[in-house]
Amino acid sequence: MIVAIGRELGSGGREVGELIAERLGVELLDKQIVDLVAARLGAPASYVEAHDEHVEGFVDRLFRVITSAYPEAYAAEGIPDWSEERLVELTGSIIKEHAATHSLVVIGRGAPLLLRDRRDAVRAFITAPFDVRVQRVQARTGCALDFAAREVKKSDQHRLAYMRQHYNVDWRDPGLYDIVLNTEHLSPEAAAEMIIAAGNRLPVASR
User: Could you list the residue range(s) of the whole structural domain that residue 6 is in?
Assistant: First the structure.
């Protein structure tokens, strides 16, 4: 079984994914993707993490434009391609490679879109009301409530922009998923059980 999860910050999506991976005894790809991409790219994990599910910033974009316009000036230096496009490409390749060989749970990084043609993949979206998500982030981090609200808004904006830029979709569109769960009154355990039950009813893989 392949489980591809889209989620909002504070919705509990990561916890749900971890529970599913644990109960199924399968690989989990979440933060692990950062190390895998960094190793393949030859970049520091901190750099990949800073750009994970984020659209390209002005400085990064400027550097990319300059190096593409004057490649001869940088060829001798052997500067590697650490562009956002390359990060997204590698992330997608790693997710597809792992999904091609064994069961796993993937959280975010466009996985529900990348695996949309897999008949053995259940695509789930985990959501919750904004105020609920803010309160959860505040409780988890101990930060001020207004700071938590800004972090949730910023995360939503980044993920929306990331999915629009690289997949041309609205990441919250329910039509992209097989199951959408609101965790305001639903425990992570219950959400995990529902997703597993949906996955168990999928047809045999057609790769």
Answer: 2-200
Torsion, CA 39, CA 40, CA 46, CA 52, rounded to 10:
-140
pLDDT digits (tens, 9 = 90+) for 88-147: 888 899 999 999 999 999 999 899 999 999 989 999 999 999 999 999 999 999 999 999
Is residue 120 within 8 Å of 126, Cβ to Cβ?
Answer: no
> CB under 8 Å to 117, separation ≥6 — which residues?
none
Quick check: is 57 in a domain?
Answer: yes
Summarised one tens digit per residue, pLDDT across range 62-99 is 444 444 544 544 444 555 666 778 888 888 999 999 99
Number of domains in the chain: 1
**Is 72 among the domain residues?**
yes
Nearest residue to 16 via CA among 130, 163, 125? 125
Which residues are paired to 104 by β-bridges?
Answer: 2, 27
> What pTM was computed for the model?
0.82
> In terms of Cα–Cα distance, which of 113, 79, 80 is closest to 96?
113
CATH at residue 75 = 3.40.50.300
